[in-house]
Amino acid sequence: MTDLEFIQKCENALIDKFKIIDEIAYFNQKKVLKAFRDCNIAVRHFNGSTGYGYGDEGRDTLGKLYAQVFGCEAGIVSPHLLSGTHALTVALFGILRPADTVLCITGMPYDTLRGVIFGENNGSLKDFGINFEYCNLNNNGSFDLNEIENRLNEKVKMVYIQRSRGYELRDAFSCEEIGIICKFIRKNGFNGCIFVDNCYGEFVEKIEPSEVGADIIVGSLIKNAGGGLAPTGGYICGKEKYIDLIGKRLTAPSIGLEVGSYEQSYRNFYQGLFMAPHTVAQSLKTSLLIGKAMGELGYKNYPSLDKMPYDITRAIQFDSADKMVNFIREVQYASPVDGFVTCEPWDMPGYDDKIIMAAGTFVSGASIELSADGPVKPPYIAYFQGGLTYEHGKYALERILNKLYKEV
Q1: Rounded-to-integer distance, Cα 163 and Cα 214, Å
Q2: pLDDT at 402
Q3: Cβ(70)–Cβ(208) under 8 Å?
Q4: Bigger pLDDT: 347 or 72?
Q5: Dist. CA 65–CA 288, nearest whole Å
Q6: What does residue 41 show for φ and ψ, rounded to 5 degrees?
Q7: Are 277 and 262 in contact (CB under 8 A)?
Q8: pTM over 0.85, yes/no
Q9: CA torsion through residues 61, 66, 68, 74, sign
Q10: Which of 112, 158, 320, 379 has most Cβ atoms within 10 angstroms of its Cβ?
């Protein structure tokens, strides 16, 4: 069997799931278009501003647009939010105050947030007297209800949920699961902020966490929500009272969201949101194809192919560092940018271990584009994500098969 014949066999087995993904993309495309019409988006909204940015209609309307799409009261969408980690940091510091306690119910957060939370003398939450506690998931990778109930008390001002897996071997949480846990938390008398790191999860389903009980959702524009066109930025959407506080942290307490200029055009931010439902669908199909092929070859990968994915990432387990590294290198070699570069593990800022990262992307580091990365340590997991086009993902798989698996 040739590589292409093997890929075709995998595609045939995924037809039903691809159809579901197309239905979700169509639903979300209509939702986005309705928001564009309701917000009366016009060419003038693409214009940038300088200086203080007073009356920057493009900036203000972009926040309103995202808020409607995500079913929220208000939103901040800004190129001055430099990454998902930065957006999360601004939101946390905007809402929390000294002596407040955060309870993360999805285990230890992603690597780049750990310095934000526990850092010493670096301006972390800990430095400001904000307590951050966490409880691990149960053995099934689900919320530990007994532990959560025991840990909720009057000191807890925020419940934090990381939707995606990060560098952990667990599935992303569906909006249904997040909705159930939000109800459970409220039933236990919690009146504070339910905060969801929504990175990698936008437009994967027909609803978002903010529509099932989350008070704040946060994400990066160089992941799902930017549709592959946003050149930078992040979003924070949710209840207006929290967005107002966060806006005062983003700029200054006396100014809030009245300022913030961006001289370049906002067009790519608007067009990126328009493209996002389709682009996410391409990434999901690519994830399933890679997962099916690697599974057929005997490699464990997550999420399981017997259910729909709830984010765009896929974790693939290898039995050696060399195989993991070679897999990631082939993703780089299949890239349209820097496809000639050989990836090497390195000490990437914000991570505890050496990281190898394939990201031959048009927007630097954009993980909505075809990319793969992971810490080079046992159990040797490559985290694969993105794909602006399904065809690109299919080509990358062909290269992987040709290079690493001569006989299928």
Answers
A1: 11
A2: 87
A3: yes
A4: 72
A5: 30
A6: -65, 130
A7: no
A8: yes
A9: negative
A10: 158
Sole residue written with tokens 């990319």: 371
Task: Tell me which residue has tokens 């050149």.
Answer: 231
The two tokens of residue 117 are: 């939370």
Contacts of 24 by beta carbon, 8 Å cutoff, 6+ apart: 203, 204, 205, 206, 277, 281
User: Do 273 and 226 meet the contact criterion of CB atoms below 8 Å apart?
Assistant: yes
Sequence letter at residue 259: V
Element spanning 316, H or E: strand 313-317
| Residues 6 or more apart whose Cβ sits within 8 Å of residue 192 | 156, 157, 158, 159
Q: Six-digit token pair at 222? A: 């160089």
Give the CA-trace dihedral at 297, 287, 79, 96, to 10 degrees.
-90
CA nearest neighbour of 70 among 347, 351, 273: 273
What is the distance between the alpha carbons of residues 32 and 71, in angstroms, rounded to a whole number?
11
Provide the token pair at 25.
Answer: 């993309």
Our CA angle for 352, 230, 364, nearest 5°, is: 40
**Letter for the amino acid at 73?**
E
* Token digits of residue 69: 């799409």
Q: Tell me the average pLDDT across 248-268.
A: 96
Q: Is the per-residue pLDDT at 90 higher than 70? A: yes
> Residue 387 has which token pair?
């794909």
DSSP string, 115-172: HHHH-SSSS-TGGGT-EEEE----TTSS--HHHHHHH--TTEEEEEEE-S-TTSSSPP
Q: Is 369 exposed, middle or buried (0-12, 13-18, 19+ CB in 10 A)?
A: buried
Element (H, E) at 7: helix 3-13
